[in-house]
Amino acid sequence: MLRVSIVIPTLNEANSLGRTLRQLQVLDPPPLEVLVVDGGSEDETLAIAQAAGVQVLTCDRLGRSVQMNYGAKLATGDVVVFLHADTGVPDDTIAIIDRVLADPAVVCGGFVSLMTGAQTTRWGVSLHNYLKTYYAPLLFKPHLFFKGLRLLFGDQVMFCRRAEFWECGGFDETLPIMEDGDLCLRLVQKGRIRQVNRVVQSSDRRVAHWGAWKATAIYLYVGVLWGVGVSADYLKQFYEDIR
Fold first, then answer.
1. Residue 30, phi-psi category: left (phi > 0), alpha (psi -120 to 50), beta (remainder)
2. Using one digit for the tens of pLDDT, what is the confidence trace for 11-51?
3. Angle, alpha carbons 161-131-163 (nearest 5°)
4. Predicted confidence band of residue 242 (pLDDT cuts 50, 70, 90)
5. Given CA atoms 189, 71, 240, 125 in this order, what sign does their dihedral have?
6. Which of 17, 36, 103, 233 is the Cys-Cys partner for 13 at CB 3.0 to 4.6 Å?
7. Which domains are present in the chain?
8. What is the pLDDT of residue 180?
């Protein structure tokens, strides 16, 4: 069984983190370690993480890529999993990851993200995000699509072998968004990327804030422009942080 480290970047995630950590406590088999990497929270995020008994790291620079790289540097597992603080995973997550990465041809994997709220499930947005994993690389990088490229995003709970993550340079810390897609473009040089046919549940807070139609339009707009080479720094203005 592979030793799995779970890295969770946080910034003011008190409303979501407790539930996510409670779900991690019942994983069977359990992960080797859970590392919460905080970027300067001003709410109860750190207290919640400490009460859960996980490793709590404070990063002196804010940024999801920076925080995830910091966690990956201190992780000791064979595999590193990047989990958003507002995303819940099935209790057999570690076994799933072990089975997927038992195939040496697979370098990275992720799950199907189902966006949910307190009283609703965002079926339409979730379906589009599922399809985007396939159609985006087919449209913009067809030569890589047939080599095994799938474009995974953060709420899909990306996982890969820690050694290969660093061989590819880790996340690009200069990117304010799309750092996950950028990593996929480099990882596919080492093997296939697989979307696992299992669901994780992510908060719909961004969709709830924007509305389903606006959210889908923004996801599509940002994805297309990134696909044709528009700078992530420019695209960040359309993708506000929502807590």
1. beta
2. 999 999 999 999 999 999 999 999 999 999 999 999 999 99
3. 10
4. low
5. positive
6. 17
7. 4-238 (3.90.550.10)
8. 95
